[in-house]
Amino acid sequence: MKRALTTGVTGQDGSYLTELLLSKGYEVHGIIRRASTFHTERIDHLYQDPHLRGTRLFLHYGDLSDSVTLVKLLNELKPDEIYHLGAQSHVRVSFDIPEYTADINAVGTIRILEAIRQAGVRPRFYQASSSEMFGKVVEIPQRETTPFHPRSPYGVSKVFAFWATVNYRESYGLFAANGVLFNHESPRRGETFVTRKISRAVAHIKAGLQKKVYLGNLEAKRDWGYAPEYTEAMWLILQQDSPDDYVIATGETHSVQEFCEEAFGLVGLDWRRYVELDQRYLRPAEVDVLMGDPSKAKKRLGWEPKVKFKELVKIMVEADVKALEDRLAGKVPAVEDERP
Ligand code: NAP
Ligand code: G4F
Fold first, then answer.
1. Euclidean distance between CA atoms 58 and 24, whole angstroms
2. Centroid of ligand 2 to alpha carbon of 312 (angstroms)
3. Which is the closest atom of ligand 2 to the Cα of 91?
4. Is residue 299, in this structure, part of any structural domain at all?
5. What pLDDT score does 339 carry?
6. Running DSSP on this structure, what letter comes out for residue 132?
7. Ligand that comes closest to the CA of residue 198
8. Are 146 and 238 in contact (CB under 8 A)?
9. Is residue 226 classed as helix, strand or coil in its secondary structure?
């Protein structure tokens, strides 16, 4: 039985990846941060499964700021594969907390890579790199050879982590690989990312519980894919004969406004009546357009996206409408969606 260690196990991608690895027979160990409230709702269905609990899914307290624990866990667990997904992953927030973002995303990656060396283990290592590294893009579509020009502390931190991964591969012969993933979404997407903010707002507005949704730049364009398919790509990247870096994307790009049109349209509403601009959601520097070229992943990994834009919006809106209906049926009070 293969053993995987995952950082960011409580996040969107961590939860889908854990499902995938368990379905493939892996023993999965996840690192979670201590919090004052529960924050494992994305993996509770797995952790509470009586067939898995304490047998194939294990959670360990740790933090990417704490190298001692990382070394200790690697020594104890000796994993075959490490999926490094943990990060301060919000681009807008990275302008507010740049030092923390750099510490967790950039130095945190070095901490894990060094922990691997110090523990004397040879796991395969996956780094969750990001299309944000392309930033002010010099070509469309972006591919593995496109130069980076990050536009946020988050993007800068991910460029550091990308090159740290390449450097440990070249310096120490580690099987260390980057997945350069373009935006990927799902009903488990964090509520402050734009797609989920819109799909939740559509559900609340349709139910008469919210009047408006306040957004920033509607003209930004993103290459949005479906998260469960992207975690499959992560796994494939670590199953190759040799480590390499791959762009994972749909090859399409759509604006935030198009997302609004499609999402409100699905419930018969005109988005223009409900979407308002709030300057607070604008960024000091914006990434105007992202569109990836996944042809290397198709050729080498046999990976191809199946869910495209319209189906993705439908999956997310339908999930939020249903989740709200279920909550209301259970008489759980709905919460107005206006978080930073
Ligand atoms: P997410 O939902 O925000 O999850 C982030 C995870 O990192 C959470 O489990 C979080 O734990 C954990 N984390 C944050 N700070 C930590 C710390 N100091 N120590 C340990 N763990 C910490 O992000 P995601 O969308 O699943 O993305 C996964 C990874 O892919 C991230 O590295 C992200 O930057 C990268 N990425 C994402 C996309 C995308 O479109 N989703 C695209 C490209 C790259 P808590 O639950 O405790 O907060
Ligand atoms: O949903 P977003 O916050 O995602 P963003 O900034 O593209 O970052 C996500 O994708 C990256 C991959 O490229 C990941 F690496 C990263 O971890 C994260 O998962 O914003 C998308 C676009 C931006 O242009 C933003 O300015 O939507 C625009 N936007 C407009 N109004 C908004 C809003 N973004 C947010 N979060 N909230 C708004 O109200």
1. 16
2. 16
3. 6
4. no
5. 26
6. G
7. 2
8. no
9. strand
